[in-house]
Amino acid sequence: MVKSFVQTFVDRYKTTPDTTAGLAYDATHIMFAAIKKANSTDPKAIRDAIAEIKNFSGITGKITISPTRDAIKPAVIVGIENGKYIVKKKYPLLAKFLIENDRNKAVFTSKNAYLG
To answer: Which helix (H) or strand (E) holds 92?
Structure first.
């Protein structure tokens, strides 16, 4: 699925997709899935259906939407070394951790993520 997305993007836009492109693709497909599930285009019905999305297979990984419509998914800290992007740290449950705690106090550094 990811290879197909990247190839289609490159064919159309003549550049490789960035993270935002993948996130936008997933968000759009989650909305389409919610409209189908709600069998409606009513905003409240779509909102409620979005909150019921579980284990959605997206370009950026598996996505579950919480009752407050936050995406619960892995997070990755990426750094640049010698002009190349490298994965510094993976947080498989970071999004869930931030939802369950006060995310407004979350502090991210290149070495860790913690509540400040």
So the answer is: none
Q: What is the pLDDT of residues 56-78, one digit of tens each?
A: 999 888 888 888 777 888 777 77
Q: Please report the beta strands in 13-73, taking only residues with DSSP state E, as ranges in sequence order.
A: 56-58, 61-65, 71-72
Amino acid identity, position 65 = I
Whole-number mean pLDDT of the chain? 80
Using a 10 angstrom Cβ sphere, with 0-12 exposed, 13-18 middle and 19 or more buried, the burial of residue 113 is middle
Tokens of 84: 């190349």
CA distance 80 to 95: 23
